Amino acid sequence: MRNYKRIAAVATATALLFSPMSVAKAEDEPLKSMPLTEVLNLKTASFDNNFNDFDVFTSIWMDVWGQLPESPVQAISNGNTALTAFVPTDRAFQRVVKHLTGKTFKSEARIASAVMSLGAKTVEKVILYHVVVGDPILSPAALAANGAKLNAASGETIGVRVSGTTITLVDKHKKHTNATVILSAVDINKGNKQVAHGITQVMLPTL
């Protein structure tokens, strides 16, 4: 896997929309600028047998940026660009590949390859559909956001449904199981301008 040099560049403004459901850190001190690349291990992709982490996301993010150097996905490496990322686990990517192709791949490398076979521009749109630019959305705000609409960086919206402590994200694909937020993997990188939440499914925009 190639290890692309991370650059500090703001993503293309026309591709990034702000969310009406955003909340900054409640404490008085300013938010820090550690990018998600530092906490999600997005500098290198190392496939393993743990399907509960984010190796496939890492791999496709690197590949998209490598093939499309000006892609707004680069914003995830710029800690001064405030955003929230909903990051699917490796298992989530296995599920979406099965949904799209009918095939169940047992290795993360095969799953990543299957995703990239859709083409860099398509995968770019999928990644951006998981990013909401603006002050980071922390889990307390998300739990109070039943009925909200998030403006994704892809230009489409994501619906939010909350029942108890279950946060469901409603995507554009009617026949695909909606993602839920993994409560044991929320507020990753809290205290910084970029935060992430793990999710159980890959959200699909209009492709």
Task: List the defining traits of the structure above.
single chain, 6 helices, 3-stranded mixed beta sheet, 207 residues, 4-stranded antiparallel beta sheet, FAS1 domain, globular
What does this structure look like?
The chain has 207 residues and is of the alpha+beta class. It has a single domain (32-199), classed as FAS1 domain, CATH 2.30.180.10. The protein contains six helices and seven strands; from the N terminus they run ααβαααβαβββββ. The protein has helices at 36-39, 55-67, 90-101, 108-116, 120-128, 139-143; strands at 83-88, 131-133, 149-151, 157-163, 166-170, 179-180, 194-199. Strands 3-4-5-6 form a four-stranded antiparallel beta sheet, with no helix packed on it. The protein has a three-stranded mixed beta sheet with strand order 2-1-7. Strand 5 and strand 6 (179-180) form a beta hairpin. Helix 2 (55-67) runs parallel beside helix 4 (108-116) and helix 2 packs across helix 5 (120-128). The chain is globular and about 45 Å long. It starts with 35 loop residues before the first helix and ends in an 8-residue tail after the last strand. Residues 1-26 have low confidence and may be disordered.
